[in-house]
Amino acid sequence: MSKLWSKGIEINGLIEKFTVGNDYILDSRLVKADVLGSVAHAKMLAAVGLIEAKQLKSIQFGLKTILLKQQRGEFDISISDEDVHTAIENRLVELVGEDAKNIHLGRSRNDQILTAMRIWMRDYQLNLVSKMAVLVQRLIEFAQEHRLIPMPGRTHMQAAMPSSVGLWAGGFAELLLDDLEALSSLFCFLDQCPLGSGAGFGTSLPLDRELCAKLLGFQKVQINAAYGGLSRGKFESRLVDILEQIAISLSKLAQDLILYSMPEFAWFSVPEELCTGSSIMPQKQNPDVLELMRARAASVGAKGSQIKGIIRALPSGYNRDYQETKDPTMSAADILESMVEAGTLVIERLRVNKENLLKSFKPEIFATDAALDLVASGMAFRDAYKMVAKNPGCYKERDPLSAIKERTGIGFPGNLSLDRAQIALDSIVLENERNQKRISVALEALIA
């Protein structure tokens, strides 16, 4: 297959293998995005009079055929293709002949990959917001359902104060809701169309970049042609940085569940069908899913560091280094998406063992309450603190349920105020659905 930059000289095989790397494999995920970008570019070329209507019709037919082949698993990208752009253009020429040779008019592989990755990341972001919203919703429901089940609160891994399963779950719901809001806010960056910026310097052709953006469902053009290239890697690292924050939250959730499902605690039970076993110890039910969530959070963070390390000192204009940002971006995206899906399943099936939770309440967990009782009778807090510390016998036997019910400040065990989190979540979901619908309508019209 002829490469788009070929000048008739055959490249050394070792250099070809080295420079292509695994790009041709990764690019199989970008076929649809690149076809969409190519259809939009062709329609724009026809609209400004750079290609004829019959050429556009021929090109559209060929691109739709390629998309159908890809959907049926019949479109392969080989190392000789080098990338998705070359593979599509070569197949297009095979399908429709001479008309296809104008598809690259006014376009560079630089703005092609920027556009394809932008479409891919935008689609990923919208889908991940939907999946994250489900996870946060399940945690809110879990917190609401178990809001009055007492749970010992711990600091430094020691018994601290009375708490509840509702407070614990609600805390993770709001933590992940913050992460979700950050992920949702990324949409405004991703919803910029770089198509038409060429190699980063524009062109003398009368391209209609705003039309391209509209056809692809973008709200605006990424205006400065040089900025398009400068943003490569930056947008990817913005996404992966947010994914790392989500991964950290999920890792902390996983660690709690590993600890609190241990037989020594047995506050929670992870169903057997979500656990794995030992090859030698028949009794084992291992929470591997949680352990791997904990570990893979580090992997996501490493991918972000890799991207930023690649782009940190690059000069303006295109540099081949940018190719190396694709793998860590897609890898981090895949890891995080699977973590969210696994985390959602665990929360949906997690069992709460109320009796074991109640047995974990020892008199000393009410020490702060005992000190506050002395304060209520007129003693200064610091004197009450010292008295309780020196006299464990002054702890009054208390009912754990009553203890959490009397904590009624906003966000306390007796007043979780989950309605606020629900309102925020509903708002994010609604906006995400609007964006999904708007883009879906545009893309369906584009390839109709």
How would you explain this protein's 3D organization?
The chain has helices spanning 13-20, 23-26, 31-47, 53-71, 84-96, 109-145, 165-185, 187-190, 209-215, 225-230, 234-260, 288-311, 326-349, 354-359, 367-376, 381-390, 400-405, 418-446, and strands at 150-155, 158-164, 192-193, 220-221, 268-269, 351-352. The protein has 448 residues and is mostly helical. It has three domains: 13-105, Fumarase/aspartase (N-terminal domain) (Fumarase C, Chain B, domain 1, Orthogonal Bundle); 110-358 and 417-446, Fumarase C, Chain A, domain 2 (Up-down Bundle); 363-405. The strands form three sheets. The protein has a two-stranded antiparallel sheet with strand order 1-2. The two termini are 30 Å apart. The mean pLDDT is 93.
Q: CATH fold name of the largest domain, please?
A: Fumarase C, Chain A, domain 2
Order of helix and strand elements from N to C terminus: HHHHHHEEHHEHEHHEHHEHHHHH
The dominant shape is elongated
Number of helices: 18
Radius of gyration: 28 Å
Into how many domains do the coordinates divide?
3
Major sheet details: 2 strands, antiparallel
Helix coverage percent: 55-70%
Q: Report the average pLDDT across residues.
A: 93
CATH class of the largest domain: Mainly Alpha
Tell me the name of the CATH homologous superfamily of the largest domain: Fumarase/aspartase (Central domain)
Strand order of the largest sheet: 1-2
Low-confidence stretches: none
